[in-house]
Amino acid sequence: DQQVKQNSPSLSVQEGRISILNCDYTNSMFDYFLWYKKYPAEGPTFLISISSIKDKNEDGRFTVFLNKSAKHLSLHIVPSQPGDSAVYFCAARGSGSARQLTFGSGTQLTVLP
Amino acid sequence: DGGITQSPKYLFRKEGQNVTLSCEQNLNHDAMYWYRQDPGQGLRLIYYSQIVNDFQKGDIAEGYSVSREKKESFPLTVTSAQKNPTAFYLCASSPGTGSYNEQFFGPGTRLTVL
Could you give the CA distance from residue B61 to residue B46 in angstroms, rounded to a whole number? Predict the structure, then answer.
């Protein structure tokens, strides 16, 4: 039973346009959400996060939106660059003492020059 | 230069053998984690440790074992009981589990069982 779902395994976007990556979750106890970026044969690197008490967090070209009522979050990248081509994972943290992360299956973003 | 190191990057083993994957961090983080990644799937938690000499099973602990004798080290042993051990293994650490701290990942070890 996947608690964090990324329903689009891949996304292609033209350079300079907006990339929108989506993530849905089912556990209403998640209180913190993160996006990671991963290149092949490397470990994921942290990109941006958002607390459940907010609905938007922005960092340069990256913005994460959280819609708690819909249990949905999205990552916007504007403008998209070829170097953004990677697999993007969303992750959610539980509110228990261990605060484990639950990851989605990832979306492969390809930014075309 | 702080970070997380995993060795080796590629590892091959024969079926039926145990193998230990190394994970070291010099970030002074309290918590450490092991994940595995399979094609088309997200990262799944194998084991985690919040403090030295203590660790807990994650979602897919069967066939794996860990130890946490030192703060900076969290080795993972893949035993012969693990039915499908070929995967990409990732180690991570975080300052602690009690606040909003992201996890930092190592470069990973790709294990292939021949």
Answer: 5
